[in-house]
Write a structure and sequence with these properties.
Helices cover 60% and strands 5% of the residues. By secondary structure, the protein is mainly alpha-helical.
Length: 1001
């Protein structure tokens, strides 16, 4: 007897053998049922070898109790001790699966199925499983027979007799035999239907691919035909009844539970389409309507039950369509978009535990392999396997995937699938979530051979394999391309030039020959630079392919690399800072403007390394002006000084364009910005501040070069239009007014000559041909327009505005803001014009009618001939002009009493008008949305084409690039144009009401 407070030797032995509840185990061992074998050391050793010794012992006691007689109990226990194969198989199953333990307790004689194996039983096929199900005459008996067969599969699995691939194949073969048995039951129940039709059951998904899980939906497609002499319509209806009955037999819950759901939603039109179609109907659908993913699904199509001849004909008929799918426009984009959609639909709380669908999960491997099969399977029939691991092996053998990558992916896939199997086997429930309970994790880890610290080892191995998949699944497409061009030592198999071109075309490259030349130039040789490029390019090529113009992205990357290849920091930056490489890829493939700015000073790549919060954050006007004035001060001569200022401007334009593109495209770590208005404000503010700082620098340079430190006259630059409104785009001119005031004692004519010289020299130097983009100054909004003097004194402005000012000039002055030069003079100019732009008592009726007349005239006369007015961002229906004139009319009429309207910024004025209840919140939102969208389109056109434009591009690639910037994926250009027309049409309705007075307010 054990002394109080001391543990028994049995308790200690149980702990040593892996039991987590030794007290409960000790009580079970003391039960009468186990008395004959209680002291046999073989029993504890066998239990300790299982995944969960506690569960195995409990299952064994229940099984012994369930035997019908003492003789039955004795037979079971004697065999258990004497026959090691039975002991390992039975206890292995009981320790891994509570569900199969329950089955054995309900059907206690089924343990005999595990006693001994004939040689053919080691790897049974469909025929053996059909024999195992032969006695099933109804759904209940079918379930019992199915579980008995499943018991033998699980036993071979947990004992290591079969590996992952063999287990998955056996599960698929058992499913095939089960579908055949279910169809036989359905036919027996409806012999007239069976006699009228031919019905083929086509397995899809993992069943079709011969790689089924323990618990999974069995995906199928049904094909029906009439027997000779039967009416086709009646035959299809009969086949539909048989198919429906088959599904119910397998799916419905009985006293023995269910087998698995039979899912026919992969059929044409999904759940909305007919359950059974004829072969001709299937073919017509796939020829005309099927989407890319439907052809991808057909990779795994395999006839398994019913009329196999009809099933084989179905597969042979559709196969040519499957292997042509890679020629479809946006093929790769469609497949990758479907993968992204799957990930996006995973609940946030579950994504880290998703073994199948999460990042680095099973689906990543499967999608990558299937994509490569579809690209290269057209010309290489060895790749046409529905089984993932077989296809991966064939891809490696053919050089389509690097051998080392294939080995790593094979290992990762086997481990992740084995985890999935063990998770499902426990309760025989369909799940892909890794459990959180430590006992569950311990059981899974032990079942996979991790015995030292099962939970920690399992988590470590799982994360390691998931990281391998995440790292490799996209590189699979691109690394063999580099092997094909790198001219390194020969490898066993290498992607042929034709296959490389084929893959590049499928990935969206329009000129694969040029792309291969670029890859060869970048990655060939044994230098350290080439080695780093070979590491970077697989990922970069994927990011380029995600854009509308992958060719341009790769070409631009080659240019930047040629320019910076010898600098020690460039490739190190891209290799070591993930943000820098992805940011560069986005910038280089988004259009012409940003790459052009970068090529003129490639060292600006360094800005991309700090991500959104660092190097790419736009700098404020004070810092910009300080840097530009310092650069001007160091330069020798006015031209050199302005050149220095323009160099800073070029770099800062690149910075702004880069953050705009990155925010619009999004990155792997950060999604695209959902606040389009914020992006517009960011660009408008940054470019306007940069323009103001550049003008300040040019002014300082010209004055210093001609007069030293002091100009004979005070001089100020007034921003107008979009410049004054902080709304400049990448391609906008700088609308300005120039004002001066002679210094005390200076002759007025001398002062005027000096002021005109300053203006002339600033304009010349800022647009002289150079490597930097010109800054065009437009002073046409000055008094008397092009006929008037370029610069006036403050007194001259006052006299003109007092005597000659027209209503359009008051409207233009709403945007006036001091941007450079003498701040005091600028403020006095603003004080001078305030009564004009915010007239006391508002505008009179005549002035309102004049503004409306001018607007109508502009619409009719200034719209370019042949332009589509529904798509012109500036002058078109509901475009920038419509919104701005409407807001400005509200400012002119109500600015004198509403301080919030006294702003140069369109969106601020619109918000103020809404706050003052001059416009409804709904109407304000409509106008704001249209204005933001039109501004975004203009920015996109400049980024994509490298030159300003007010309409959508006509070139298909450029139009797609604009769409990508605006958040529209491949193939959705039509949606973009429809959305633009819809948004601006609504805005025009508000403009008609507010501006033209359809309903006077």
């Amino acid at each position: 007897m054990t002394a109080p407070g001391r543990r028994s030797s049995t308790f200690t032995r149980l702990l040593r053998h892996g039991f987590t509840d030794p007290s409960a185990a000790e009580r079970l061992l003391e039960s009468a049922e186990l008395a004959p074998i209680r002291t046999d050391p073989v029993l504890l050793d066998a239990l300790g070898a299982t995944a969960d010794p506690d569960l195995a012992l409990l299952g064994l006691v229940r099984l012994v109790e369930a035997q019908a007689s003492r003789a039955g109990q004795r037979e079971l226990l004697d065999t258990l001790i004497a026959a090691k194969p039975l002991r390992d198989r039975l206890l292995g199953v009981l320790g891994a699966s509570a569900a199969l333990g329950d089955h054995l307790a309900r059907h206690p004689l089924d343990w005999h199925a595990l006693v001994m194996y004939e040689p053919q039983d080691l790897h049974p096929g469909i025929a053996e499983f059909e024999r195992g199900l032969a006695d099933a005459a109804d759904p209940v008996s079918l379930r019992v027979s199915y579980r008995r067969c499943l018991l033998s599969i699980a036993a071979r699995d947990v004992c290591g007799t079969t590996d992952l691939a063999q287990t998955a194949a056996e599960l698929a073969d058992l499913a095939t035999a089960t579908l055949r048995a279910a169809l036989a039951i359905a036919r027996t129940a409806a012999p007239e239907d069976a006699a009228m039709c031919r019905l083929a059951v086509i397995a899809m998904g993992k069943c079709g691919g011969h790689e089924l899980n323990y618990v999974s939906d069995v995906d199928v497609i049904f094909v029906g035909e009439a027997v000779e002499g039967a009416d086709e319509g009646k035959a299809v209806r009969a086949a539909t009844r048989l198919a429906s009955h088959l599904m119910r037999i397998c799916s419905e819950t009985t006293v023995e539970g269910s087998i698995w759901p039979v899912d026919a939603n992969l059929r044409p039109e999904g759940r909305n389409g007919p359950l059974v179609r004829t072969l001709a109907s299937h073919l017509a659908y796939y020829q005309r309507w099927a989407k890319t993913w439907e052809f991808q699904a057909l990779l795994k199509a395999r006839p398994v039950a019913g009329d196999i001849e009809l099933g084989d004909t179905y597969v042979a008929t559709l196969a040519p369509l499957v292997w042509q799918v890679a020629e479809r426009e946006n093929f790769v984009g469609d497949v990758q978009k479907m993968r992204r959609r799957v990930v996006e639909n995973i609940p946030v709380a579950e994504i880290e535990r998703e073994l199948k669908l999460g990042p680095g999960g099973l689906r990543d491997v499967e999608f990558a392999v299937q994509l490569l099969q579809l690209v290269h399977g057209r010309g290489d029939t060895s790749l046409r396997s529905g089984t993932t691991l077989d296809a991966l092996k064939a891809l490696a053998a053919g050089g389509y995937v690097g051998r080392a990558d294939a080995v790593q992916l094979d290992d990762a896939y086997r481990f992740l699938r084995s985890m999935e199997h063990r998770i499902q086997l426990f309760r025989l429930r369909r799940t892909h979530l890794v459990p959180q309970d430590e006992a569950d994790l311990r059981r899974i880890g032990r079942s996979l051979g991790l015995r030292t610290d099962p939970v920690a080892e399992l988590n470590r191995e799982w994360k390691r394999h998931a990281a391998v998949v995440r790292r490799l699944h996209e590189k699979l497409f691109y690394r063999p391309l580099l092997d094909a061009v790198a001219q390194l030592a020969p490898v066993e198999s290498r992607l042929s030039a034709g296959a490389a071109r084929e893959r590049l075309v499928a990935l969206g490259y329009a000129d694969p020959a040029a792309a291969l030349r670029h890859l060869e130039a970048l990655a060939s040789g044994v230098s350290r630079k080439a080695a780093i490029q070979r590491t970077l390019l697989p990922v970069l090529l994927g990011w380029f392919a995600d854009s509308a113009d992958p060719d341009a992205g790769l070409l631009n990357f080659r240019k930047v690399s040629d320019a910076l290849g010898k600098t020690p920091w460039y490739l190190r930056l891209l290799r070591d800072e993930g943000a820098a490489a992805e940011n560069l890829a986005r910038v280089l493939s988004a259009g012409r403007l940003a790459p052009d700015l970068l090529m003129r000073a490639p060292e600006a790549v360094a800005l991309l390394g700090d991500g959104k919060a660092g190097g790419l954050e736009p700098r404020d006007r004070a810092h910009l002006e300080q840097e530009i004035l310092a650069a001007v001060g160091r330069a020798a001569g006015g031209q050199a000084a302005v050149t220095a200022a323009r160099g800073v401007r070029r770099r800062e334009l690149f910075r702004t364009a880069a953050i705009d593109i990155i925010n619009s495209y999004g990155t792997e770590e950060s999604p695209a910005s959902a606040d389009q208005g914020a992006l517009v404000d960011l660009v408008g503010g940054a470019v306007s501040d940069l323009t103001a700082a550049t003008l300040a620098g040019a002014l300082r340079a010209v004055v210093r070069d001609g007069w030293g430190e002091t100009l004979p006259t005070r001089f100020a630059v007034i921003g107008m239009g979009r410049f004054g409104g902080h709304e400049l785009g990448y391609g906008s001119d700088a609308d300005v007014l120039f004002v001066h005031e002679p210094r005390e004692g200076v002759d007025e004519q001398e002062a005027s000559r000096a002021a005109h010289t300053v203006v002339s020299e600033m304009r010349r130097l800022l647009q002289v041909s150079s490597a930097d983009p010109p800054l065009l100054i437009d002073a046409d909004l000055r008094p008397e327009g092009k006929s008037g003097p370029m610069v006036r004194t403050l007194n001259s402005y006052e006299a003109y505005y007092r005597r000659w000012s027209l209503v359009w000039e008051s409207q233009a002055l709403l945007r006036a803001e001091v941007v450079a030069g003498d701040a005091d003079l600028g403020l006095r100019f603003i004080e001078l014009i305030d009564p004009l732009r915010y007239p006391a008592e508002g505008l009179g009726d005549d002035a309102v009618r004049e503004i409306r007349r001018l607007k109508a005239r502009m619409e009719s006369e200034r719209m370019p001939r042949g332009a589509d007015s529904t798509l012109h961002t500036k002058l078109g229906r509901g475009g920038l002009s419509d919104v701005e004139w409407t807001v400005q009319l509200l400012q002119l009429r109500h600015g004198w009493v509403e301080p919030g309207l006294r702003t140069t910024r369109t969106r601020e004025a619109l918000a103020a008008a809404c706050a003052a209840e001059l416009i409804s919140g709904e109407d304000a939102a409509v106008l704001d949305e249209a204005w933001v969208l039109a501004t975004r389109v203009r920015n996109a056109v400049m980024l994509v084409r490298g030159r300003a434009g007010d309409t959508f591009p006509s070139d298909g690639r450029e139009l797609a690039a604009v769409g990508r910037y605006l958040g529209y994926g491949p193939g959705h250009v039509g949606d973009m144009l429809d959305d633009y027309r819809r948004t601006t049409r609504r805005a025009r309705g508000v403009v008609d009401e507010l501006f033209y007075g359809v309903a006077e307010r």
